[in-house]
Amino acid sequence: MSEFYKAKRGADWNFGGSKWKLSRSKIDLFMECPRCFYLDNKLGVARPRGPAFTLNIAVDKLLKKEFDIHRAGGSAHPIMKKYGVKAVPFNHPDVEKWRDNFSGVQFFHAPTGMKISGAIDDVWVFPDGELIVVDYKATAKDGDVTELSDTKWQNQYKRQMEIYQWLLRRNGFKVSMTGYFLYVNGKTDRKAFDGKLEFDVNLIAHKGDDSWIPDILDKIKKCLAGSEIPKAAPECEFCAYRESAGRSFRESLIYAKENRNADHKTRLIKIDEKRSADKKSESTASLF
């Protein structure tokens, strides 16, 4: 039991704790499965972590370095010129803070009493001061990625951008409705690797709508303020695994207990049979 509690997150990092805040990824977790969200943020038991996407992280880091050169020089990146985006990378003292996963762009939402945060990849700015949210995405798919489809992951990307736009607006910035995904797609049609991976780079526009956010924040607050664990999402693999594993574990314990009881009863019967045989032997011996 002690090992289980050691694996749990400290109370300060759970809802109500001094270090807790509602990140963009936690909002998505709530929308994906309220039960997993509750276990994570109220009870401190997070989902198991998947493997780190180290190649994606490397691409992200290199892109930031590349755009920072233009940020420092106040110049437009070639991809901006290619797509006719008349902007430059936003040179603001808080850019690094906004990018950091442990800080990000933050806003205290008074109606729910929750601090909302999100780590942004990049921000560009038009000459009139209007900001553009930019998110980097790296993948390796056959064909060219020129638009976002209506899939689970890409709908998540859209919500991600809209949360960033909402956060910057709540911090007093004028933010364009249109954001951009800088999509880099690894080329797999080369004859050989030759120690390098080449990418196609596309800029995909998305017109954001953050009107859904206040409603979802209210639902999240009601979920966290309640004492009842929410229902699992029907398609949640994590909840299905937990329930299946828990059921199998309980059945295994019951089966083992029944077997122990059966073995105990068998031993008692054998002891009784032996005692009866011994008594019969003693009775027979007394006749002679």
Describe the structure.
With 288 residues, the protein is α/β, with parallel strands linked by helices. It has two domains: 2-235, Lambda Exonuclease, Chain A; 236-288. It contains nine helices and eight strands. The protein has helices at 2-7, 24-32, 34-41, 54-73, 78-82, 95-99, 152-170, 213-225, 237-285; strands at residues 22-23, 88-89, 105-109, 114-118, 122-125, 131-139, 178-186, 199-207. It has a five-stranded mixed sheet with strand order 2-5-6-7-8. Strands 1-4-3 form a three-stranded mixed sheet. β5 and β6 form a beta hairpin. α2 crosses α3. The radius of gyration is 30 Å and the shape is globular.
Quick tags:
288 residues, alpha/beta, Lambda Exonuclease, Chain A, five-stranded mixed sheet, three-stranded mixed sheet, 9 helices, 47% helix, 16% strand, disordered N terminus, disordered C terminus
